[in-house]
Amino acid sequence: MSDPLSLYPAIEAALMCDCIVAKPAQAQALYRQWLAGGYARAGGALYPVPAPGRPARPLLVAATDVPRRGLGSAEGRAALLHAIAHIEFNAINLALDAAWRFRAMPDAFVDDWLRVAAEEAQHFLLLQQRLAALGYAYGDFPAHNTLWDMAVQTGHDVLTRMALVPRVMEARGLDAVPPIQRRLAIVGDHDSAAVLATILQEEVGHVRIGNYWFTTLCDARGLDPLETFRSLLGQYQVALLRGEMNRSARLAAGFTEFELSMLEDFSVTRQRTVTRSKHEQAV
Ligand SMILES: [Fe+2]
Ligand SMILES: [Fe+2]
């Protein structure tokens, strides 16, 4: 058998790849070859990544400038699927970055995040197929430019990354999918709804991975997970919930009933506090 290749330059190449065909293919090949023992954890300098590789299109705009359309037309459905495809494209990068950046973590961490990167690549491919069926492609609509921000903000600490990316951003995805599936079913787009069902199932696994590593890291540092999580939400000014919580998916992903109830209360209290302080500022 030939000598294993150096893992970190291979991950970096996928992370910085700006081609929408090559990046998902590289992410999936990385995971296969890592599992087959084709890589040694070696090589490559570590540095902050202000922006991973991305194609010239979609045009990146402020989140508030991404147009929202009704789902009655193919264009409206394509715009929605495009927004999700953009999240998946960024999710490939977020997962690759976790496997690349946090080098003191054990091999099981690399297993998990390369698996997530490969699954995010599959999600991106599934959504590209749905876009093509509607006569569109990734890049046809503007997209928002904020998804990488959390990677930059949490690049210094793996515990913070696990708290705020899988346990907040990906967990919000669990909440967001069922209402979208219902809206797609109402307009008869059952193929797109079926793709989202596949994605939701695998996203539960991603959040579970985040929960596992977050609690493992809290244990190792002698920290209380709930207190630590709440304090990070406040410190980074992160909203835990946007809309209704998907309790069953979050429970399947390893959150406990107790924790979800506490977090719901905490979110409501924080929202009231933010609203009150905005009101006071206005006055
Ligand atoms: Fe995904
Ligand atoms: Fe994910």
UniProtKB/TrEMBL annotation:
<protein>
    <submittedName>
        <fullName>Ferritin-like domain-containing protein</fullName>
    </submittedName>
</protein>
<dbReference type="InterPro" id="IPR009078">
    <property type="entry name" value="Ferritin-like_SF"/>
</dbReference>
<dbReference type="InterPro" id="IPR007402">
    <property type="entry name" value="DUF455"/>
</dbReference>
<dbReference type="Pfam" id="PF04305">
    <property type="entry name" value="DUF455"/>
</dbReference>
<dbReference type="InterPro" id="IPR011197">
    <property type="entry name" value="UCP012318"/>
</dbReference>
